[in-house]
Design a protein that fits this description.
Chain lengths: 347, 347
Amino acid sequence: MTATEQPFDADTPPARPLTITELAELAGVSTATVSKVVNGRSEVAPETRALVEGLIRRHGYRRQRRRVSPAALVEVVIHALGGDYPVEIIKGVGQVARQHNLAVVISDAPDRETPGRGWIEGVLSRRPSGVIGVFSGLTDDQREQLVTRDIPIVLVDPSGDPGPGFPSVGAGNWSGGLSATRHLLDLGHRRIAIITGPDWALPSRARLDGYRTALDLAGVAADPELIGSGDFLIEGGRAQAHRLLRLPKPPTAIFACNDGQATGVYRAAHELGLRIPHDLSVVGFDDLPSVEWMNPPLTTVRQPLCEMAVAATGMLMKLVGGEPLPQSRVELGTDLIIRGSTARPAH
Amino acid sequence: MTATEQPFDADTPPARPLTITELAELAGVSTATVSKVVNGRSEVAPETRALVEGLIRRHGYRRQRRRVSPAALVEVVIHALGGDYPVEIIKGVGQVARQHNLAVVISDAPDRETPGRGWIEGVLSRRPSGVIGVFSGLTDDQREQLVTRDIPIVLVDPSGDPGPGFPSVGAGNWSGGLSATRHLLDLGHRRIAIITGPDWALPSRARLDGYRTALDLAGVAADPELIGSGDFLIEGGRAQAHRLLRLPKPPTAIFACNDGQATGVYRAAHELGLRIPHDLSVVGFDDLPSVEWMNPPLTTVRQPLCEMAVAATGMLMKLVGGEPLPQSRVELGTDLIIRGSTARPAH
C-alpha cells in the first residue's frame, strides 16, 4: 500500500493535503467531478463546485501520482485592453517568454480591480506555466485556486495592495510624484494642481504623497482646491482640468498623474484657447510611446512598463522552476523626461 | 494489413499523401526525426529538416491513425507590436475566441511583410486550432507547412496580395480614398496632397487610386509634386509634410493615408506654426481610438479593425470546424468620420 492509497477517515482529516480520491469521498461525489473542478472545466453545478472548492481550501489538494505538466504558456490577465499601456506589458512578457520557449496568452479581464470570475476557470483549464496579472489583486479564493494547482502568479503595477509576500513589480511612484512636482517648482510655479487617480489606487496615492512632500519641502502650502480627483482616464482628466482652469485663481501648472489624464488636460486647454506651455505647464506619468507625438511633446515621468513586465516574467520563471525569489516586491525607478509641455510661468 | 501498413516502394511514389513511416523510409531517417519536423521541434539539423519538408511538399503528409487534437488556442501573428492598431485586432479575435472557449496567443512577427522563420516552428509546436495573420502573406513553404498540419489561417488587412482563394478580410480602401478626397474637394480645396504608404502595400495603392479618381471626377488635374511617398509611420508622415508645406505652391489639405502619418503631419504643422484646420486641413485613415484626442480631433476614414478581426476569426472557426467558406475574401466598408481637422481653405 503506497502513501496515496492509505485508507482515509472522513471524521479525522489528516494534516497532509488530500488527493482527488479522498476529496471525492469526503464530498460524496465522483472523482471525475472533483477532477473537473480542479481542472477548471465548466460542466459542474455551481453548488458542487463551491462544495469541492471549500474542501480544497480547508484541507489542501495534492496531485495523485503523475504530475500533470503545465502547458508551454504564460498567461497575461489584463484589465480592459486599450491604448499602448497593455502593449508595453505584452512586449516585455514576450521577450522573456520567448527565451523559455513559452507562448503568451492574453486574457482580457473585465475591470482593473480584480478580474472576473470566468477568468480563473479559463486559467485552470489551460494550465499555463504561470500568470502575469495586471490588476489590483486576487480574492482569497482565486489565490487558493492557483496555489493548489501550482500555477504561480506575479502582478505588474498592481493598483491595490497585493498582500505581504505576494510577488509583484511596481515603479517608484512616490519618487516620481516628487520629481514631477519639483520640476514645476524649479521652473518657478507656485500654483501647481494635481489630478489624481481613484482613491483606492495605491500608485495614485503614492504620487499624491510625493507631490505634497515636494510642496512642503519648498515651503509652498498645498491648496485643497488644486487637488482634483480623477479616474486615470482621459475624460476624467479633461473634466478636472476644466474645473481647475476656471477657478478664480487658476493653476499655472498641472501634474496629471498619468499620460491619459494629461491628454485630457491638453484637450481642455485647447477648448479654452490656452497655449501649452506658455499659459499652462503639464506633466504626465507613464511615458507611453505615443506622448512624444503630442503637440507640444509631453513632459512626463517615465514608468518603465516594458522593463517592469520583463522583471515580473523573470520572477515568474524562477517560481515556475521552483526557485525561491530573493524578494517578493520589486520596484523599478522612474525618470523625469523633460519635453515641451513645461516652461516658466508667464506671469 | 491496413492501408497505413501497406508496403511502400520508394521508386514509385503513390498518389495519396505519405505517413510518417513512409516519409522516414524515403528520407532515410528515423520516424522520430520526421515526427520532430512535422511537429515543429527544434532539435533537427537544417539540412535534414529541408529534406523532409521537401518530401512533404512533393508527396503530401497524412497523419497516422490517431488524429492529434489541436490545442484550444487561436494564435494571432502580428508585425511589430506598437500603438493601438494591434489592440483593436486582439480585441476582435478575443470576442469570437471566447465564444468558442479558445484562448488567444500573441506572437510578435519581426516585420510586416512576412513573419520570420522562427514563427512557423512556434506555431507547429503549439498546434493551435487556427491562426490569424496580420502581415502581407505567407511564403509557399509556410503555407504548405500549415496545410499539411491542418492548421487554417485567415489574414486581416494583408498588405500584399495573399493569392487567389487565400482567406482574408480587408476594408474598402479604394472607396475610403475616394471619400476622403471628395470631402476635401467639397470643402473647396483644389491643391490636395496625399502621403501614401509603401509602394508594395496594396491598401495604400487602393487609397491612392481612390484619391486620383476623386480628383479626376472633379476635373482637378493631379499634380505629381503633391504625391508624397510615405511608409505608414509617423516620422515618414512628418518628413513628407515638411516637404509638401515648403513647396512654392503648398497644398491647402493633406490626405495622410493612415492615422500615424496624420500624426506626423500634425507635428510638422506645429513645427511650422500652421494652424489645423485654419491653415491646413488633414484627413487620416483607420480611426484608431486615440485620434479623437488629437487637437483638433482628426477627421479620418474609419477602417473597422475590430470588426474585421471578428469577421476573420468567424471565418477561421468555420475552417476549424471543416465547413467551407462562402467566400474567401471579405471586405468591410469604410466610413468618413468628420471631426475638427478639416475646414474650407482660408484663401
